[in-house]
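> forwarded from #structure-qc
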């Protein structure tokens, strides 16, 4: 069964295209990632899927409900955690989660089993104002509030942005546990390394999906041998490599450049490496 089906979604703001003819579907219980840089259209897509804004064109259904005709029903069965911390900062941790439970006509005790593993991390700080929490603690509270009404589908818009590495790992472990409970999870992130933790991913750039597949399959699609070239002076190295007529593509990755060749048979001293999702994304986006 499909949890989400989107057909030909488009959205523009004052003549600027945010989403361009996007179509995809997500299976029930799937952990689906939307991967792309800032400004690619991830948040606009999530706001359409959660009925917060309307698409200019296209159709979307969530758990069989139309996002336009059945928006009230959808809001009762989805949880949404926006990229920016949006809980009440002058309320305590406990007051926030009790408030969101009350909004959905439930209470913390009724669905505590859903959030217990997450909420246990912040339970010692129940009386602390949410605005005084650390970044990782804020994300755990926001996730608890998004889950307290027992949603069928969970939307997480860049949940690990600005969070320390340990909290990032903890959050992804929590998402895997939630998936085991049958919740469909759609998560967006600008971090390519997090893509490997999803069942399938959609690569998005400039408002368009440039590929959708499993992380392994996407990496396997990389069409050529990939090489790494290191150097102390990156601007000079980039210039020299890009002026080499046998170099097809050249992208900077930290203290090295990843390159592909026009003629792979030509002898070279470059170090061959395995491509990553980021290499594939860069190649498609060039």
């Amino acid at each position: 069964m499909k949890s989400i089906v989107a057909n030909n979604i488009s959205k523009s703001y004052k003549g600027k295209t945010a989403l361009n003819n996007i179509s995809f579907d997500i299976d029930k219980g799937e952990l689906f990632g939307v991967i792309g840089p800032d400004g690619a259209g991830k948040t606009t897509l999530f706001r359409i899927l959660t009925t917060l804004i309307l698409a200019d064109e296209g159709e979307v259904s969530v758990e069989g409900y139309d996002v336009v005709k059945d928006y009230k029903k959808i809001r009762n069965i989805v949880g949404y955690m926006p990229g920016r911390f949006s809980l009440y900062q002058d309320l305590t941790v406990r007051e926030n989660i009790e408030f969101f439970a009350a909004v959905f006509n439930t209470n913390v005790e009724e669905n505590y089993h859903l959030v217990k593993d997450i909420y246990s991390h912040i339970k010692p700080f129940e009386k602390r104002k949410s605005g005084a929490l650390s970044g990782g603690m804020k994300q755990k509270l926001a996730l608890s509030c998004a889950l307290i009404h027992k949603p069928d589908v969970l939307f997480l818009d860049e949940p690990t942005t600005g969070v320390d590495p340990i909290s990032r790992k903890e959050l992804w472990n929590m998402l895997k546990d939630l998936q085991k409970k049958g919740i469909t999870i759609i998560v967006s992130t600008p971090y390519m390394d997090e893509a490997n933790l999803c069942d399938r991913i959609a690569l998005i750039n400039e408002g368009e999906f440039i590929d959708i597949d499993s992380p392994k399959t996407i990496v396997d699609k990389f069409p050529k041998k990939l090489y790494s070239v290191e150097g102390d002076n990156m601007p000079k190295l980039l210039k020299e490599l890009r002026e080499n007529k046998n170099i097809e593509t050249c992208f900077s990755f930290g203290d090295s450049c990843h390159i592909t060749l026009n003629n792979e048979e030509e002898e070279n001293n470059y170090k061959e490496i395995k491509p990553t999702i980021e290499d594939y994304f860069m190649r498609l986006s060039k």
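QC bot note: The chain has a mean pLDDT of 92. The first helix runs from residue 42 to 49.
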